Amino acid sequence: MGKMKFDDSLGKPDLSRAMLGRIAGYFLPYWKQALAVLAVLSATSVLGLLPPLLIQRIVDHALPEKNLRLLVYLVGASLGATVASGLLGVLQNYLNAYISQSIVYDMKNQMYRHLQSMPLQFYTSVKQGEVITRMTSDISGIQGVFSGTIVNFASNLLMLVTTAGTLFWMNWKLALVSLFVVPLFVAPTRKMGSVRWKIAKETQEKISDQNHIIEETLSLSGYMLMKLFTREGRERSRFMTANAETTALQIRESMAGRWFMMLVSTFASIGPMLIYLYGGYLFIQGDISVGAIIAFVALLGRLYAPVGQLTNLYVDIKRSVALFQRIFDYFDMEPKIADAPDAVSGTLAGGSIEFRNVGFSYQPDKPALQGISFKAEPGTMTALVGPSGAGKTTITNLIPRLYDADSGQITIGGKDIRNLTLHSLRSGIGLVTQDTYLFNGTIRENLMYASEDASEEDLIRACQAAYIHEFIMGLPEGYETVVGNRGIKLSGGEKQRISIARVLLKNPPVIILDEATSSLDTASEFFVQQAMNVLLQDKTSIVIAHRLSTIMSADRILVVKDGQIAEQGRHEELLTQNGVYKDLYDKQFGRQAVQRTHAKEEEGSPT
Ligand code: ADP
């Protein structure tokens, strides 16, 4: 799994051309709207210059000349400029929201599709809750990149350039003086930015830890584990510690740089003082008007604010790129199991399943399967037996390509399963595992997952065959009963029978069944077994066998040991070999055989 990175650390942001190009790719479809934003921003930055310049005319002309008409006209124009820039602001907000939300929309869809195509291996390794974090908070963070970073940059730059230009045009000497204080607040602002970035990064990590605790302990199985081992106190204090750390960091974050801010605003107020001083001198010299001094001071804010903002831009860019990077890390994980370019669809019906020298490992250097070869003829039952951890489940997982074999070949009907489309392969296989998954909906919804257009009769027929119809009808709400998370409101046997009914509705030619019924009581085991027998009729089946009757009636038994097939054949053949199977049979199934004989005797004896 070389390419897969499952950690969620915030690496160093990669500001390479390729990365920026990739980010830009997401904005490309919205270039027209982005251009409109730029136009609006240019207009607002010019409009913003007007009021100070109009004030200059008021002070220098309207007032000394006692010209009421001019005064009203100038005030009106100033008001008009302010209103116009307000209206443009609304338009800009709309465009911002449109662009950012559209990008989030595109990314979410792309991410969902990508995650759907990730192999099972990904979901067995990824930290619980991480997928949700990526899908929600990370991608949602992207919307801030446009409306925050990019628009901020453009609007500040425009404001800075237009204001500086105007100041120089009005009086270059005064303009130079006003620039004099700029370096004084660049340094503190930079410092503040980097401190905040560091704290923000730490905060994000802590929040993710905290979410992890929540997901671990407040999910169904986590909750049960915590309760049954009475770990509430410990978990509570673990949570409280994480929570306290996050809170402390968040307070630090909002306080970070407040001292610098104070310095910055002090420095910023030095600017106007210098203008009054030097501008006053120029006025006395007869170089400049009073109105110009007032306009200058009014424009200073439009000069200093963008300088401050732009100083922090680097931090913003780093933050934005890091965000994109976290998402790209996910996109870059190759879905390992996908349709081959030349994959064809086909049916599995009537084809034999053949393993040819198949090898597989979950981890490097630890083979789970080696040299597995066997053939399951159509319509026959192949039983897998062997100690726990031998590799039986792994063999069954390779058939629907939940994992891909590392070496060797698996064919169905002579076709390599890798040349079949995943859709046709998986629609041909019904999998009944020990761990029955029902989602939190009604029984009907859970059943219909197998076949959207199943009729009421199909549904009932499947449930009757799975020995569960009567149970369902006995529930107050029948098929409309809600089963709870993972089907918690049903017993193990009921869940298994519903999942068997679901596979019956799907009606695939190949059945893979883990018949472990050890968690069931005798009565429900009886029903589950009956249901399983119906399920396997006329199918090609691979069964992880736990019952004597299964192995006795199996057409072929594979004895799996340490990832290899130790022996294969029919029950009687294997028994006479006096090998691994005989040993296993005596230990695991011998007792069942004795019990069965007893049961038969009891049945037979008159009471
Ligand atoms: P069986 O079904 O015969 O009990 P499995 O096929 O489940 O055995 O497991 C075979 C071996 O592979 C075991 O050693 C098990 O620990 C290992 N294994 C199973 N699933 C995984 C996994 N997702 N990641 C790593 N190792 C696994």
CATH class of the largest domain: Mainly Alpha
Instruction: Compute the separation of the termini in Å.
Output: 64 Å
Bound molecules: adenosine-5'-diphosphate
Given the helix and strand composition, which structural class is it? alpha/beta
Helix proportion of residues, in percent? Answer: 55-70%
Strand order of the largest sheet: 6-7-8-3-9-10
* Poorly predicted ranges: 1-10
Task: From the alpha carbons, calculate the radius of gyration and give it in angstroms.
Answer: 36 Å
Q: How many strands in all?
A: 10
If classified by CATH, what would the architecture of the largest domain be?
Up-down Bundle
CATH-derived topology of the largest domain? ABC transporter transmembrane region fold
The biggest beta sheet reads:
6 strands, mixed
CATH superfamily of the largest domain: ABC transporter type 1, transmembrane domain
Q: What overall geometry do the principal axes of the alpha carbons give?
A: elongated
Report the total helices: 22
Count of distinct structural domains? 2
Mean of all residue-level pLDDT scores: 86
**Proportion of residues in β-strands:** 5-15%
Membrane topology: Multi-pass membrane protein
Keywords: ATP-binding, Membrane, Nucleotide-binding, Transmembrane, Transmembrane helix, Transport
InterPro entries: AAA+_ATPase (IPR003593), ABC1_TM_dom (IPR011527), ABC1_TM_sf (IPR036640), ABC_transporter-like_ATP-bd (IPR003439), ABC_transporter-like_CS (IPR017871), P-loop_NTPase (IPR027417), Type_1_exporter (IPR039421)
Protein name: ABC transporter
